[in-house]
Design brief:
mainly alpha; 16 helices; globular
Length: about 350
């Protein structure tokens, strides 16, 4: 099913090539369909039982008690679903909303929204809102933050990062980018980030960082496939720095600084994966929307005779990754197969 969906998306993209209005229509159709595919699944996703346990833990929480938890946005959703009288599968529906809302928000601002969404399916959509509910909600809010960053809107950028931190505390690390909303990347803006943001971030995140180190560094806990995903991020960064950086700066100056910073983070995830695959994966997913933003613009940036081949290569690479993952991964077979939905069930 997953391969069929991706092949269908790619075929639709190829069929609509060069037809801007038709591609935007397909984008408006595919986003709600993918939302329904994710939100109304049943017992699909590696963290299904873990989040179900969280849901049971929150059964007797008041909203005040939920807000007092470490990630109050997530626990408040659980408490609210209980208060309304709904069952656990509705949590997936509620938490899929910020992810797809944010994904659509950033995709609409791309020259090719359909290509952006197609590329998001094999890694970002399958791994995040179909499994990691807390981080997927945070990533959706981060997409709003990235758009605010492009618009040089410091207040909205910080507000959305803080909102993302309500669902996954690790998102607060991106507050370090706040000075770059107003200033170009330079020695002075980097120094400003170090002086103004990092001390506060350290005190806010010190406990979380300590937990991450104790839990994920030098332990047996591993993120399956993280090296390959980090490798794809690093390959995208290398392509950006070696081929796309100059035309990107020329044709998309408003988005250039975000792409530049994102590329550096992508590059850093690969060596980080050998220290802790979980931490590398966690931060890699946050910058995956920036990766997709770069890859979906290749056809606008490269005018060589081989431009078509280079433009098609990300779709082929993600497709190959999906084929290998679905065919060889025991982890995938356990978590995602068979796909089931509860849409016809009564809750």
């Amino acid at each position: 099913m997953y391969l069929t969906i991706y092949c269908g998306l790619v075929f639709s993209g190829a069929l609509s090539a060069g037809r801007v209005r038709f591609r935007r229509f397909l984008f408006s159709v595919f986003v709600p369909l993918l939302f329904a595919f994710v939100a109304f699944r049943y017992e699909v996703g590696c963290d299904w039982s873990g989040y179900e346990l969280n849901f049971e833990t929150a059964r007797y929480f008041t909203i005040t008690e939920a807000i007092a938890q470490r990630e109050p946005g997530f626990w408040s959703v659980l408490a609210a679903v209980h208060t309304i009288g709904l069952e656990y599968p509705y949590v997936n529906v509620v938490l899929a909303i910020p992810f797809f809302w944010g994904l659509a928000h950033i995709a609409r601002r791309q020259p090719d929204p359909l290509g952006f969404v197609i590329l998001s399916f094999p890694v970002l959509i399958i791994n995040m809102p179909m499994s990691a509910l807390r981080q997927s909600a945070a990533i959706g809010l981060m997409c709003f933050a990235f758009v605010a960053f492009q618009k040089r809107d410091l207040v909205r950028f910080v507000a959305f990062i803080l909102a993302a931190g309500l669902f996954h505390f690790s998102a607060l690390a991106f507050l370090a980018l706040a000075p770059f909303t107003k200033y170009r990347v330079s020695r002075w803006s980097i120094a400003a980030s170090l002086v103004l943001v990092l001390p506060g971030a350290y005190f806010a995140l010190a406990d979380a960082f300590s937990i991450y180190v104790d839990r994920y560094v030098g332990t047996s806990i591993d993120a399956a496939g993280a090296v390959y995903r980090s490798g794809m991020l690093a390959a995208t960064a290398a392509l950006f720095f070696l081929v796309l950086r100059r035309p990107f700066r020329q044709w998309f100056p408003a988005e250039y600084q975000l792409a530049l910073i994102g590329a550096w983070v992508m590059l850093a995830t690969l060596p980080m994966a050998f220290v802790s695959s979980v931490i590398a994966d966690r931060f890699g997913y946050y910058v995956t929307p920036i990766q997709l933003m770069i890859l979906a613009r290749i056809s606008y940036l490269v005018k060589w005779p081989s431009a078509l081949l280079l433009s098609a290569s990300p779709y082929a690479a993600f497709g190959l990754m999906l084929v290998v993952w679905t065919d060889l991964s025991w982890h995938f077979q356990q978590c995602y197969v068979p796909y089931q939905t509860w849409l016809s069930w009564a809750y």
